[in-house]
């Protein structure tokens, strides 16, 4: 099955107008920053709707859209376990973790760990976050965006499409800081939800509804609880792997927690996190099940990563396709801007400001912008290498599974057990890394 991946000029116009608007908004917001706190934490003034939508948009990126639909196509709906479990983790975060983190008035999670342990914990976790933000999150989003644009413009080399996307997202992130990221994320959440709902409805109508799926798709593919040897999410993973990955992503990951650190107060931080948890629940219907419907619509696709773009281009008419593509690009830019901004914050706060405490607030902002530019280039250079991996979703989860368990253990033990000390924390990191290797 070879769908036509070309775009009508009307669709291109819709996408172009949206991209220009987002870049303009980011540059405009960038003129309002006076201090490093304004740039990196939006002046700690964000209210809960924007926090919740930014958390959702930063999590449900283009890589997630591609990955959820692709995994639902190849292994079934058990991939949704990552999504509903995220809601549980967010409730845990709101009750047990958030009060400690906001009370500390830190810029970064590694800074919080230094106050609890020592500088070694901060340095290791900063480096790990930087690695995951650039090599995993930003590069994966650029790869997915480049993959889609390569389908639309087959004559353009993929490195050029990746470079163009990096520049677009980098411009408004460098100019506007976290405020630009959060406000554009709110817009992008709306675009993302509209696009996903339209895709879902179109797929269900074409396949013949829910009854057609339940009668023609294997029952195993429609089960959230899978056997121990399942290649997707076996039942044991619900009690081992998912809690570890969930706590890292929602409680430790700088590019997610940074949104909550920008909250006006604890109440707005809590409500924003719970709003994001609520937005995660419909993902089964608007992002996962369309991939299952694709089993019947396109049984001979060569790559699972092509499921979502095939659904878009095969099912949607001119105009509507442009709107949904704008939503897809919104998801792409949301994760890129989030990870670039958080990586910049980590380097500036955890390394530069610590080494040069005499630097002014303005100079720290300048450093942050240059760091964003450097990381944008690094992520764009690494992104084409992901093409060697079969599934983008498996690429993301496998890297996280090897790297995050020691950090999660250190974070949770330090938060809930007062007797935990710096030497024990460092030893847990060393042992965890050796076991992962």
UniProtKB/TrEMBL annotation:
Q: How does it sit in the membrane?
A: Multi-pass membrane protein
Q: Which residues form a coiled coil?
A: none
Q: Which UniProt keywords apply?
A: Membrane, Transmembrane, Transmembrane helix
- What Gene Ontology cellular component terms go with this record? plasma membrane
Q: Which GO terms describe its molecular function?
A: D-glucose:sodium symporter activity
Q: What CDD domains does the record point to?
A: SLC5sbd_SGLT1-like
Q: Where in the cell is it found?
A: Membrane
Q: Where are the transmembrane segments?
A: 6-27, 47-70, 82-102, 123-149, 161-183, 190-213, 233-251, 272-298, 310-332, 364-383, 395-413
In the record, the note on similarity to other proteins reads:
Belongs to the sodium:solute symporter (SSF) (TC 2.A.21) family.
Protein name, as recorded: Sodium transporter
Protein's organism: marine metagenome
């Amino acid at each position: 099955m070879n769908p036509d991946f070309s775009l009508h000029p009307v669709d291109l116009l819709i996408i172009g107008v949206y991209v220009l608007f987002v870049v303009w908004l980011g540059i405009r917001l960038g003129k309002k920053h006076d201090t490093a706190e304004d740039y990196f934490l939006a002046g700690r003034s964000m209210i809960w709707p924007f926090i919740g939508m930014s958390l959702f948009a930063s999590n449900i990126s283009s890589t997630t859209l591609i990955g959820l639909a692709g995994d639902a196509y190849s292994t079934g709906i058990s991939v949704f376990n990552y999504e509903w479990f995220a809601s549980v983790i967010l409730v845990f975060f709101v009750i047990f973790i958030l009060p400690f983190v906001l009370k500390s008035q830190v810029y970064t999670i590694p800074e919080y760990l230094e106050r609890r342990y020592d500088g070694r914990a901060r340095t290791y976790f900063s480096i790990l976050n930087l690695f995951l933000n650039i090599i995993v999150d930003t590069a994966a989003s650029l790869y997915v965006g480049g993959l889609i644009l390569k389908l639309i413009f087959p004559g353009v080399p993929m490195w050029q499409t990746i470079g163009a996307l990096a520049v677009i997202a980098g411009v408004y992130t460098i100019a506007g800081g976290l405020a630009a990221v959060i406000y554009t994320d709110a817009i992008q959440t709306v675009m993302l939800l509209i696009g996903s709902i339209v895709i879902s409805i179109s797929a269900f109508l074409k396949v013949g509804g829910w009854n057609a799926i339940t009668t023609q798709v294997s029952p195993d593919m429609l089960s959230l609880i899978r056997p121990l040897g399942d290649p997707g999410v076996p039942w044991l993973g619900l009690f081992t792997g998912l809690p570890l990955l969930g706590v890292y992503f929602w409680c430790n990951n700088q590019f997610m927690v940074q949104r909550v650190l920008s909250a006006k107060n604890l109440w707005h931080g809590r409500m924003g996190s719970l709003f994001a948890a609520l937005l995660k629940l419909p993902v089964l219907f608007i992002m996962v099940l369309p991939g299952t419907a694709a089993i019947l619509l396109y049984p001979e696709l060569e790559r699972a990563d092509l499921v979502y773009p095939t659904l878009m281009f095969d099912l949607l008419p001119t105009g509507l396709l442009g709107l949904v593509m704008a939503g897809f690009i919104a998801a792409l830019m949301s994760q890129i801007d989030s990870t670039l901004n958080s990586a910049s914050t980590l380097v500036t706060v955890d390394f530069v400001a610590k080494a040069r405490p005499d630097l002014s607030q303005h100079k720290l902002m300048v450093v942050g912008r240059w760091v964003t530019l450097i990381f944008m280039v690094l992520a764009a250079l690494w992104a084409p290498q992901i093409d060697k991996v079969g599934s983008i979703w498996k690429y993301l989860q496998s890297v996280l599974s090897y790297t995050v368990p020691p950090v999660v253990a250190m974070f949770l033990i330090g938060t809930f057990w007062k007797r935990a000390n710096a030497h024990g924390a460092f030893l847990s990191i060393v042992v965890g890394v050796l076991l992962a290797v």
